[in-house]
């Protein structure tokens, strides 16, 4: 009987965290951007970014700095405004950047309202082929 009750309580807890996000812990509802994904966009010289935040973040910004051999200078970063969609207690953000310099390394962070993700980086390939075809699947859970 204890095992049955334990399983039922576990299922109820899992269900309530999925269906009623306001029940989640404060840590899960942090305002920092999470689930940051980067992929190719229109060709190998472009990138698309997606991330989520709580509804506390109203801005959708991608900050991009080309590597110059020192610490990224966020004061002089290129700022790309993205788009967002709201769903329940979350905002889903997207931004794209095109015409990146072949062979260059870039640093990026995403967010808004003074709250940003960890810093990521990528290097743009140098290639004669610009078109890319691929399937990219992710699951934020």
Average pLDDT number: 80
| Regions with little confidence, pLDDT below 50 for 5+ residues | 4-29
Q: How large is the radius of gyration?
A: 19 Å
Structural class based on helices, strands and sheet pairing: mainly beta
The total strand number stands at 9
Helix residue percentage: 10-25%
The first-to-last residue Cα distance is 31 Å
Name the beta content range. Answer: 35-45%
How many helices in DSSP terms?
1
Shape: globular
Largest sheet: 5 strands, antiparallel
Sequence of secondary-structure elements: HEEEEEEEEE
Description:
13% of the residues lie in helices and 37% in strands. The protein is built from 1 helix and 9 strands, in the order αβββββββββ. The strands form 2 sheets. Strands 3, 4, 7, 8 and 9 form a 5-stranded antiparallel beta sheet that branches. A hairpin with a 2-residue loop joins strand 5 and strand 6. It is globular and about 45 Å long. The model is unreliable at 4-29 (pLDDT under 50).
Secondary structure blueprint with pairings:
Blueprint lengths: L1 H18 L14 E7 L6 E8 L6 E6 L11 E4 L1 E5 L2 E8 L7 E8 L2 E2 L3 E4 L18
Antiparallel strand pairs: 1-2, 2-6, 3-4, 3-7, 5-6, 7-8, 7-9
Short key terms for the protein model shown above:
mainly beta; 5-stranded antiparallel beta sheet; globular
Would you kindly provide a brief summary of this structure?
13% of the residues lie in helices and 37% in strands. The strands form two sheets. Strands 3, 4, 7, 8 and 9 form a five-stranded antiparallel beta sheet that branches.
């Amino acid at each position: 009987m204890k095992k049955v009750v334990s399983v039922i309580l576990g299922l109820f807890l899992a269900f309530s965290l999925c269906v009623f996000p306001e029940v989640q812990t404060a840590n899960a509802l942090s305002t920092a951007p999470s689930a940051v994904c980067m992929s190719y966009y229109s060709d190998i010289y472009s990138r698309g970014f997606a991330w989520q935040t709580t509804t506390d973040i109203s801005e959708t910004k991608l900050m991009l700095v080309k590597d110059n051999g020192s610490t990224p200078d966020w004061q002089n970063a290129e700022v790309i405004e993205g788009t967002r969609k709201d769903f329940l207690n979350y905002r889903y953000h997207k931004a794209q950047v095109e015409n990146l310099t072949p062979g260059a390394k870039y640093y990026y962070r995403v967010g808004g309202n003074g709250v940003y993700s960890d810093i990521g980086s990528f290097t743009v390939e140098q290639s004669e082929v610009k078109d890319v075809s691929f399937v990219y699947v992710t699951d934020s859970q």
